[in-house]
Design a protein that fits this description.
489 residues, alpha+beta, 3 domains, five-stranded mixed sheet, 19 helices
């Protein structure tokens, strides 16, 4: 049986639901009462379009886990891909054997046109493990098709745990990325007459806030004007606010944005944002019934109140997810305008694909304009997340240097470093950076340590005199090689 996949989207019911049996409002109310979240995967038979009960029950189980919409969709697609491959083998999810799952793994990581890496397969194997664990617990299956390895680990999971892919930028690289790639300048800091990007100040401000706060993409790209201090009556300068709903795993933590980064955002708000808002005002007016129209902003309490779906609602700003932030607007100078800092041509917050395209176009420009003054550009294009890595390394190095002070030699600094870790945990640079980044464990932050020191000189000193010949020059070595060749050896 071939299976189709769709997702729950309550916001589309009024537009597409056409039946006299039940109204769209009743369906939405039923979904809310049952706790079925947007993004919940729904599996149905391709021919009859009737639900496939075991898989739909798994989708319902995922929804009760309060996963975000993107994750729910990713998990649903993973199950759908697995079912499609099993169908090609004459099997299905309920009758699959271990060899069928091994075949799927090999297909995904080796045989398909674009094989996936260990990190992507780790996620898929987790979904498989969760799926079959659920089916066994529900009594739908008597046992899992794949054996469990030691400590209950999924036997089909990657054998090697991949470390973090930490990539960071130097000062020169960052300025080139921000000013030339995103900002439309030439390498000599002159204006590029061929630059055709829509909003260079917005893109520059995005990179400055990403670097100046160390936040993840979903955290800095969804920031609201009152959160970053660009709201009437706020004093300006550096900003501090709490992220929670847009943070990874929903883990709340304070975020500090430097004064220079806020100033970069303020420049965008003064010079570019008003024109974007003015052009989009009429479009937002037509969409008013689908938007959250804010009437009151309590800056001190971090709360906003307004009208959503015809009812007065109040939210803690930190508890607003990206989907709600995207439709949050207020009455501005030109009509309705987004409460989010960053806006695109439609007048609302840019999504993931938009920010990805800004970055890709910047990379193309950076390579096209590269000359002898250009800092080294890596083979792979930079990611927004690389700015978070850069923030972590710069802050960690600064705090370590601050801790070391002016000790006379490296050994003295190391002795002080060891005593510092044991005696002053509260001020430990590693733990400070870990808290700022919102890492679940300092073990994650620990991986940055390998990038804070340049060990080349230490390696040179350690192996001095072991290899090579102090009296032999490269010219002598080359001469010896040539004479050996001419002598027939």
């Amino acid at each position: 049986m071939s299976v189709d996949l769709s997702f729950v989207q309550s916001g589309l019911l009024e537009q597409f639901l056409d039946t006299d049996v039940i109204s769209a409002k009743e369906v939405v109310a039923l979904l809310e009462r049952r706790g079925v979240l947007d993004g919940t995967p729904v599996f149905h038979d391709e021919e009859t379009q009737m639900p496939v009960p075991p898989l739909c029950e798994f989708g319902r189980y995922l929804s009760t886990a309060l996963l975000d919409e993107t994750t729910l969709k990713d998990y649903g697609r993973a199950v759908h891909r697995l079912d499609g491959h099993l169908l090609s083998l004459g099997s299905d999810v309920l009758s699959a054997s271990e060899s069928d799952l091994v075949s799927y793994r090999d297909h995904r990581i080796r045989r398909q046109r674009k094989p996936i890496g260990a990190a992507a397969w780790s996620k898929e194997s987790f979904v498989q493990d969760d799926l079959y664990g659920f089916l066994v617990r529900q009594g739908i299956l008597t046992h899992r098709p794949a054996r469990l390895a030691a400590r209950g680990r999924n036997a089909l999971a990657p054998r090697v745990r991949a470390s973090m892919d930490i990539r960071h930028l130097t000062f020169e690289q960052y300025r080139y990325f921000r000013d030339v790639g995103l900002g439309g300048q030439l390498p000599n800091s002159q204006v590029n007459p061929a630059f055709r990007s829509w909003s260079p100040l917005r893109d520059r401000a995005g990179s400055d806030i990403a670097l100046g706060s160390g936040t993840r993409w979903r955290e800095w790209s969804t920031v609201l004007l009152p959160e970053i201090g660009l709201w009437p009556g706020m004093p300006g300068g550096a900003a501090e606010f709490t992220v929670q709903a847009c943070a990874k795993y929903g883990k709340a933590r304070p975020v500090y944005v430097t004064e220079d980064a806020v100033a970069s955002a303020d420049l965008f708000c003064m010079l570019e944002r008003p024109d974007i808002v003015r052009r989009a005002a009429r479009t937002l007016e037509r969409r008013a019934r689908d938007l959250f129209i804010v009437a009151d902003v309590d800056v001190a309490g971090g709360r906003i109140r307004g009208v959503l779906d015809g009812a007065v609602r109040e939210f803690q700003m930190s508890a607003m997810d990206a989907k709600l932030r995207r439709i949050t607007v207020y009455e501005g100078e030109f009509g309705l305008e987004a409460l989010s800092l960053f806006v695109c041509r439609g007048g609302l917050m840019p999504g993931a694909d938009a920010w990805k395209s800004y970055r890709h176009r910047a990379w193309t420009r950076m390579n096209a304009l590269a000359d002898e003054t250009t800092p080294h550009l890596p083979f792979r294009r930079w990611r927004w997340h690389d700015l978070r890595h850069t923030y972590a390394l710069q802050l960690l190095t600064y705090l370590e240097n601050l801790m070391d002070g002016h000790e006379p030699d490296l050994q003295a600094r190391r002795r002080r470093h060891r005593s510092y870790l044991t005696g002053h945990i509260r001020h430990n640079p590693l733990l400070i950076v870990s808290r700022r980044l919102g890492h679940a464990s300092p073990e994650t932050t620990f991986q940055y340590l390998q990038y804070t020191d340049d060990l080349i000189n230490e390696f040179e000193a350690a192996f001095s005199g072991w290899v090579g010949d102090d009296t032999a020059t490269y010219a002598e070595i080359a001469s010896h090689a040539l004479s050996s060749t001419s002598g027939g050896h």
